[in-house]
Design brief:
The chain is mostly helical. Helices cover 68% and strands 1% of the residues.
Length: 436
């Protein structure tokens, strides 16, 4: 009989009764964020409602497939780490621009080619990954943590753009969910502590139901089963669209590097290996190409799930794989997907605030391991100051071409990465002196 402690190690198969709750916890942490970019894109571009629903189902299936490949690599594609994949928000602005002006076919053609480019970069990462030194990786992880803080806060308040944003109901539900998560994380032991986010989600969801914040009417209209719609848009290949998407893929690769490094540091308590980084980036790219065949925008690693792994300590690949299976089932059985998407934003915000903070903490820990030399101080502080500061005042980028604004004006991670890499390559190396 397998030891129950296997959920805290990468390898080993645990009983389904123990694995499923942890897999479900990961799904609930990212489910709404996974389907939201597709919903927004379809609405803005004007995709008819039947096809739009099909794209949402495809997004769930693609997320499940991508997560499974990260967990159980195919050849050199995949990291063999508990990384959860989902549809990326990073591409949304550019995707809307291409979809509206040139059509969804052009967008899907660009996604397919761009994904292949990133996948190849991942396979040949050993030739360029050296430019990403430990201090660069630590700074990027810290930037990811900072960038997510407002995401958690907006969810807590009911979701950006929601008519009841910041309402008393959202405050009550978000605060209650946060307190339940915090209570179990701080005072429970064993499995109950590791399941603190799931318990908080369930408790918050029940309260939201009692307060009339949950609408399940669509379940009665849903079909029992629905197979995925492959190639809903015929790919059209336009050089301009492809080049634009490839640039954003480079930003996505940066985020994947940061998430993978943060996972290794905070959840596995070790440094990431070159093979793991290579496989993670390759999976990010090649599965994004598959997403294009399903009519979806690219996928990427989800930072909230890195935070969840750090908080819970659960890194078992089989346990996380049950979550990937749940995502695929949600794509095949519409009623299941409707149930998961009915979770109010305030409930998700109450859970994710702590998770996002743990990513920030992981970045601080990685920075401390690099040493507090003058060189590291300059790389980290200047990169974060420019990256976070400039994107908070996004009007600074108004003089630049639209592509530059799309990639950098609201993406502090991309700016931080570029500045950190430039400083790392140009500053004279010196001996690290640890702070007393």
């Amino acid at each position: 009989m397998k030891k129950s402690g296997n959920i805290y190690t990468l390898e080993g198969r645990v009983a389904l009764s123990k694995a499923i709750p942890f897999g479900l916890q990961h799904v609930l942490a990212m489910f709404v964020a996974n389907v939201t970019p597709i919903i927004i894109l379809a609405n803005v571009v004007g995709v008819e409602s039947g096809l739009s629903s099909s794209l949402v189902q495809n997004a769930m299936i693609i997320a499940g497939i991508g997560t499974l490949i990260q967990l159980y690599p195919i050849w050199r594609v995949g990291s063999r780490l508990p990384i959860v994949m989902g549809i990326s928000f990073t591409f949304l602005s550019l995707a809307i621009s291409i979809g509206v002006s040139q059509g969804m076919g052009v967008l899907m053609g660009a996604v397919i080619v761009g994904g292949i480019v990133e996948g190849l970069l991942g396979l040949f990462a050993k030739y360029w990954i050296k430019i990403i030194s430990p201090i660069v990786a630590a700074t990027v992880v810290t930037a990811i943590g900072f960038s997510l803080l407002s995401v958690g806060a907006n969810s807590f308040a009911g979701g950006l753009g929601s008519p009841d944003f910041g309402s008393a109901k959202n405050w009550i539900v978000g605060s209650f969910t946060l307190l339940v998560c915090l209570g179990f994380q701080a005072y429970a032991k064993g499995y109950m502590r590791s399941l603190s986010v799931l318990i908080g989600l369930i408790a918050g969801y029940i309260l939201a139901c009692c307060m009339g914040m949950v609408n399940l009417s669509a379940i009665g209209e849903a079909s029992i089963i629905s197979l995925p719609n492959i190639m809903p848009f015929k790919p059209v290949f336009s050089l301009g669209a492809i080049l634009s998407i490839v640039v954003v893929f480079l930003v996505s690769a940066t985020e994947t590097i940061g998430d993978t490094s943060a996972l290794a540091s905070s959840a596995l308590h070790r440094e990431i290996t070159g093979k793991e980084l290579s496989g993670s980036i390759a999976c990010d790219g090649f599965v994004s190409s598959i997403a294009g065949l399903f009519g979806c925008t690219p996928i990427t690693s989800f930072s909230q799930n890195v935070g969840l792994a750090s908080m819970s300590g659960v890194v078992n690949r089989f346990a996380i794989a049950t979550g990937a299976a749940i995502m695929i089932l949600a794509g095949l059985f519409p009623a299941f997907g409707i149930l998961l998407t009915s979770i109010p934003q305030a409930v998700l915000g109450g859970c994710t605030i702590m998770m996002f903070g743990s990513i920030l903490f992981a970045g601080f820990g990685m920075t401390a391991k690099c040493g507090f030399s003058q060189r590291n101080l300059i790389i980290s502080s200047l990169s974060l100051s420019i990256g976070i500061g400039f994107t908070q005042a996004s009007g600074l980028f108004n003089i630049f071409p639209e592509l530059v604004k799309t990639v950098f004006a609201e993406n502090c991670v991309a700016v931080v990465f570029i500045i950190a890499v430039i400083l790392n390559l140009t500053l004279k190396k010196e001996r690290a002196v640890m702070a007393q």
